[in-house]
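Hey, resending since the last one bounced:
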Amino acid sequence: MSYFKDLSPYRYRDGIDRAVNVGWLSLKNPLFPRGNTCSNAVEELKKLASSPSWRTRGYFMCPFCIFRRSKPALVNFEATKIVLGSAELIVISPDGSKFIAPDLVIHYIERHSYKPPQVFLEALKSS
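The structure tokens again:
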């Protein structure tokens, strides 16, 4: 998967205005913010992942799980397993700003203690 610095302009797909990247992690930049993220935020991300904004082809595996690189990450949401690594999630803040994250952001938060930017978490809270 590509690496994009948090809050850098999103330029992957055309037609997306005023969007920024969140959670595009890579082994090329293994130092990322870590900390606790509210479980409500994680549940909201899982809800978004259950009906993602944009599907990609194939699956990206977590680059940090050295023993699971051949299997996609899974999460449970409302008694359903969601396969991560093949979609983007869009979070829109009240001011119309857009944050685009890979659905793997859920795995990064839960398994690797990735701490998304506070502005993203605030937008997620109000979505």
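The radius of gyration is 13 Å.

Sorry for the duplicate.
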